[in-house]
Structures are given as structure tokens and as C-alpha cells.
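Why this split exists: single-chain examples teach little about how molecules sit against one another. For that reason, every record in the complexes split bundles all components of an assembly together and asks for one structure covering all of them. Below is a record exactly as it appears in the raw files.
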Amino acid sequence: MSIFSSNSKKTGKTCTVIVGCGRLGANIADSLSEAGKDVVIIDSNSDSFRKLSPMFGGMKITGDATEMLVFNDLDMKNVSSVIAVTNHDNTNIMVAQIAREMFHIDKVIARLYDPARECVYRELGIDTICPVILSTNEVDNLLFGGTTA
Amino acid sequence: MITLIKRIKAGTYYGIVIIMIGMLMACPLLILPFYHNEIKYAPAFLLPASISVLIGSVICILRPYHKFKGNRWQPLIKEGSVPVLFVWLYAFFAGSVPFIMISDMSFTLSLFESVSGWTTTGLTVVDVSKLPHLLLLHRSFMQYCGGLGFVIMITTISGNPETMSLYNAEGHPDQLKPSLRGTARIIAKLYLGGLVLGIAAYCIAGMPPFEAICHTMSALSTAGFSTNTTSMAAYNNSAINIITIVLMLVGASNFYIVFLTARGKIGTVLRESEVKFMAGLTISFSLLAACNLYAEGKGSIGHCLMNGTFGVITTFTTTGYSLEKYAVWPAFSLGLLALLMIIGGSAGSTAGGIKLLRACLLLRITIDDLKQHLTPDRSVTSLTYRKHQTNLYISKRIKENTIGFVIVYMLTLTAGILLITLTSDCSLSTAAFEFASALGTVGISNGLTGPHTNPATLYIEMFGMFLGRLEIIMVFVGLSTCVNQAGRFIFGQFR
């Protein structure tokens, strides 16, 4: 019906889907929600949503994001970005792949623990954040930042 | 001017909502072009409206909104409960002003009418045949707004993320869209859409437009103020009855369910536990009531079926329209109605009562408990219910919440009934029916509530309606927070 899509027509794609409500996922969701953005957060365990701030105004969905069923409820046409931040690299890859291949989401970001897996993502065109590499760089910076720079 | 508006938009919720209430108070004046001779009553609306806008603006300017600092992890409901309580109380007083100024009603009666309106109850102490159109519209419009809730209205305009605590405190558990503002807008759109469709349907069925507007507002908010003294019986028209039934059902359904239905996902809707329970309850109770009416010789089968169904639906949706005086109904049917009043509509709708989902869960838990006596000790059962398209396990926490709420509800009900028997000279069953009606925000009266009722009884009923609309626990949390804060304010840092 037209009245339901009027919102998306006006502002284009606005919604961010975050998969995995861990510390990182919850923090991202909170800050987006506080900025007034549309946020959907998915986690397989409903207890994880406790990490969200009480002011979180987005949608919480309990379910396994590697199953297509979870996305049925969502208006995926309205989703601009998907962020996969579960604690499993393989799940993150899978979710990112679903988002890219099945729903053609423009911006897909995944967190991965194992830097060796980065090549998989690069082939798929998925942006990655790797805490190990980030931390390594930062430690390097702290150790030698003054001298090498 | 623009900076002033910005300043006001950045004000506290207290200020913004008071401004909004002021604007809502002025809305009934929109019908003045059609009823010129009632222009003399306009000041009665303009005065409270302008005073509210003024007070709200002053509050906004003096106390700009500041980000909540303090302990973020205290329960949500506690933070939101005080503003919500305050806003509703303010609305009650503002809504009573036109009654005082136009008709020569006492303060208590005016306040009662206003509380009954905003809480979508529909108990009335005025003679509607003598009221001007403006006041009739004011009554229905209060119910319409009260049904939606102030927080939803304010959220559609100002999308501050911290409105979330208020949103929960006012008793809206659902999220239909990825942002709170989106959710509020969808709900408001559905509600407005229902209003337009309802008015059109009533007009087609032959109701005069003014009455169509009033009745749609009341039916959709499951409130039940009518513009006729005999309620819906005045029309004696089955088409109108059926439209009313549909509107009441829409009003009493969770907004989530209405949203899915509007999107055409009927199959998904029918699998929700709440909908199944609602359907089962409606059909079985309607048949029981109809059979009972027929057996007591209250008319033909068709007549009894219509009256029974209408009575059952109007009660469990907590609307309170009537096709005939319920006082003439047999005791068995009245008992059915009383039971339905206590159960009420679905959570997150405009209805009151224990709420269908809790009743459904309670039934499941009880049956499971009984079954445990019949099965071997080591057998394992897993109870689930279906909500928001997912099967959820009935955990210990949910069980405790459900049973706790039901017990609090029952205790409140008992206390209220006993207080009414004290203040008014009536039988226990009359008091029980009347207070159940007030607490469930139903509004069916068996004659106890009227212009000559003892003021004390009226105040007890008002408190009941207030508890019923805002979910009892929320009111208690809000009151205890108020007392706490007042204590801290008075005794300062000494503690």
C-alpha cells in the first residue's frame, strides 16, 4: 500500500541492519538510534538485547540471520547497509554474502577476527573491520609512533 | 519567531505535550462553520486551549530539554512513568474545563466526564440529548486522542530517541518500524485511516455525518461515548451494528496486527496466539450469550444472535456501546460480560483490561499446571506461544510477569469494589460490575453511575479508569517514583 512506503520514497534508503548484538553491535545500534536513524538489530538470543541502552528505539528481532526467514519480516528494499558483527567469522561472511547477493545491499560491513580470512571478503567486495589488525596498528603506533612518523 | 519555535521544540516533554493538549482542545471548534449558533460556546474551548499553549511554551522556554544524565540502567518504565502520569493528569483537568464552562455541571461531574473520555472508558454522567454539538464532539475527540495516547502523537512530531522510555511507559510494547518515529507515524496513519474509512462506512449505512464522526472516533478508540441516550439502539440498523463491530475489533487489536492486516498478510495474522484466542473467545462467548438470551425469551434467534454478539464484542473490546439496556439481560449473560470486561482487549491497542495475551498465557500456564498432575514426574513439556510471527517459549520470567499482573489487577479490582460498596448504597454485584467496567475502561453501566451518584464513588471510578488505561503497574511505579523524588526534594541530601 502506498501509505506505508511514503516514508522511504521521500528519504531514500534509510535503514541499517545490524546482525549480532554483542558489545560492538549494541554500541553501533545505540549510537545510530540516538542519531535518529532507522535501526534493526538481529540476534539469535533475545537475552543479548540487554546490552542495548534503554533508549534504543529501533527494532529488535530474535532469529538466526543466516536463515532467509528472518529477513522476510523486514522491508529489505529500504535497507541501505548491513553490518555483520557476530562473534563468528563464518556467520559474518555468510550474512554479508546474503546481504550482497540476495538483497543487493549497497554497503555491507563485516567484522572478522582472523585476518587470514580477509581475502574471502575482498573477493566479495565487502568492507571489513579486523580488530586484530586495528589493534596491531595502534600498538605499533604507540610503540614507534613518535620515531617512525 | 523561528528561534522561539526551535526553543519550544527543544523543550521538555512536559511543555511540548501541554502545548499539544492545548491544540487538541481547540480541535472541536473546527465544526463551528456547520453549527453557527454554537459560536457562543467557543470561549469554553479557546480558554483552556490558549492557557495550555501558554503554560507549555513557558515551561519549554524556562526548562529546555537536557539530556538524561544519571544511571542509564535503571528500569525504563521508571523514567518515563512520571512524565506520562503528569501529562495524563493535566489532560484530565484541561478536558473538564469546557464542561464546567458550558453546562452547569459540578467540578466532580465534569472531571468524571473528562477522565472517562481520555481513558476511553465511556461511563457518562451527562444527559447527551441536552449537550451542544461542540461538547459532543469534544467528548468523542477526547476518546479518540486518548485511545492513541499522547506519547505516540508527540513522537510523530518530535522524534527524540529518548522518547522511548515514555513510549514504553504509556503501554505501547510494539515496534513496527526500525525507528520509534516510524512506528509512531505508522500507528497514527493506521488510526487516521480507520477514522476516515469508518466515517465513510457509517455515512453509507445511513448515519448523519456528525454522528458518524463521533461514533467512529468512539468505536475506534474502544471508548463508547454515544450521541444518543440509548447508544446504538437508536439506529436499529444492522449495517450500522456490523460496522460498529468491525471498528471495535480493529480498535481492540494490537496495532501490529492491524498493520499486518492492512498489508494483506491475513494468513500470518491468523497464526498469532492472541488472534486465535480472541477469535475463540468471541465466538464461544457470543454463542453462549445468544443461546442464553434466546432461552430466556428475549426475541427471535437472529435478534438474540445480533444482540449477544454485539454485547460480547463491545465488552471485551472494552468499548461499551449497547443495543439494549444490559440491566434486562439474564444474570448468566451479565456474568459472561463481567468476565470479558476483566479480560479486555489486546496489549498495545486502545483497549483496557488484563489484556488478551496475558489471559491466553494464564490459561496455558494453568492447563500445563493441571497436566503436570496427570503426567509422570519426569516428563518434559515446553510451552510456546506465537507473537510477532515468532514462536516464543513461555519462560519463567514471562510466567511470573503474567501471574503477577493478573494478581495485582484482581487485588485492585477487589479493593475498588469494596470501596464502592462503602461509598454508595448498592449491592455487591452492582458494585462489582460497575468497578470492573471502570477498571477495564469498558463503560457499560448498570445504572449506578449517573449525575446523582455519590462524588466519592465517582472519584474511585475515576482512579479505576486511570489505572486501567495506563496499566496498573505503570501508575504504581510512577506514584512511587513521585513520592521518592518528593521525599528527596523535601529532605534534601540528608539521607
